[in-house]
Amino acid sequence: MSYQELLDQAQHASQIGDWALLSQCLQQLLLGEETPTARCSRFTDSQTASLLDLVFQVLRFGSFPERWEIVKLFPTFGMDADDSQFPKVIAPLIDLLQDEDADPDAQWFAVRALGEFNHSQVIIALIEVLKTSDNEELKEMAVTALAQIGKPTIPVLVELLSDDSTRLFAVQTLGHIRHSETIPVLLSVVNDADAQVRAIAVESLGSFHSPQITNALVQALSDRATPVRRAAVSALGFCTPDDMGDIDVVAHLHPLLRDLNIEVCCQSAIALSRIGTVEAIEALSDVLRSPHTPERLSIEITRALVWTNQPEALNQIHQALSGLALRDGVRLEMVTALGRLDDAVLKGLATQILLDVLNQDSSFAKSATVRQAIALSLGQLGDQCAINPLIHLLADPDVGVRLHVISALKMLDPTVAHQALADLSKTELPAELREGVAIALQEWNINSA
Q: Which of 107, 209, 290, 375 could connect to 404 by a Cys-Cys bridge, CB 3.0–4.6 Å?
C-alpha cells in the first residue's frame, strides 16, 4: 500500500472514529528504520500537519492500548530544538495539559510524550503540572518525564525545593535523574523536616559512592523515621571499601539488626551479606545466636550468611545446626539455603554439613520433611560423595523421602548412582534398605523406558 493510500485510509478511519485502525495506519506511515528527518521528507508541510492532527485525535479519543502505541509517534515529528517541526509537536501537547476539560488519561499520555523532548518549554510545562495539578498520577508521570529529560531540569528543580508544596516532587525527580550534579542538592535535604523527603534523598544518594555520602548514610541510621533508616541500611550495603574510608560501616549496621522495626532488621542482614567481611559474618552470627531473635529475622540472617559465599559463614551455619536451640523453620531454611550454593569449594563444605545433620540423633533430623529437604539439597550440590549416604537413606519408611532420594541420585550422576544401586541389590541387605533399593531401581527403569 502506498503512502497516499495509507494516508487516505487514515483519514477515513478518523472520519468514522475507528481509532484502532487510525493508530495502525499512522504507525505504518511514521515508524521505520529511517531517521525522523527522512520520514518527514516524504510528506508536504500540509500532510505533516494533517498527520500530527490525526495523532492527536488518537491521543484524545483512543483507548489505553491505542494511546500507548500512538505516544511513540510524537518524536518522529522532531527530536531536537533545531528541528523546525519541533514547536508544532510540543505546543499542542502543552495545550492538552492546560485544557481543563481534557480526559485525564489523555493528559497522562501527553506528559509521557513530553518527556521525549529536551526543551525549555517542556520543562516549564511539566513543572507547572507539579505545582498546580491535583492529579497524583499525573504528577508522578511528570516526575518521570522530567527525570527522563535529565540534567537540564536540575536548576529548575532546585528552585522548587524552597516551596513546601513542590519539595517532595522535586526530590523525587532529582532522585530519578541519577546524575552526579544532584548529589549536593540531595545532601542538602537529608535532614529535611519531611521524613518522606529524607527517605527519598537517602535512597537516591545510595546510587553514588564517596566517603561524604557514606557519612550521610551512617547518620541517617539513627533517623526516627523507619523508611529513612531502611533506605540508609540498604544503601550502605552497596558501599565499597573506598566509599567507607575510615568509617566502620559494619559496626554501624550491627545494632540495626536489633532495630524496633523488623523490616529494618531484615534489610540490615541483607546489607551485611553484601559487605561479606569476616566482621559482617560475625555480626550476623551474633544476632542469630540470640534466643530473642524473631524467627523471620533468623531466616533472613541464614540466607544472608549463605549469600556471603564465605567458608566462615558456612561454619557458622554448621555450628548453629549442631548447637543452637533454633526453631525448626530456621533449621529447615538452613538446609534449603545450603543447596543453592554455586561455589565449587563451598558445595563440598555444604555437602559435609548436610550429611552431618543427616546423621544427627535429633527430632529435627528424624523429620521426614527435613530428610526430604536434605536429599534435595544434596542433589542440587552435585557432590558425588553423597551418593552412598543417599542410597542408605532409601531405607527410610517415608515414601516422600525415598522419592526425593531417587530424584537426588539422578541429579548427582544417573549412571554412577544406578550402577551403585544395581551392585547393592546383589548383596545381603537389611529388609528396609533392600526394599528401598528395589523401589529405586524399579522407578529408574520405568522413567528410562
A: 375
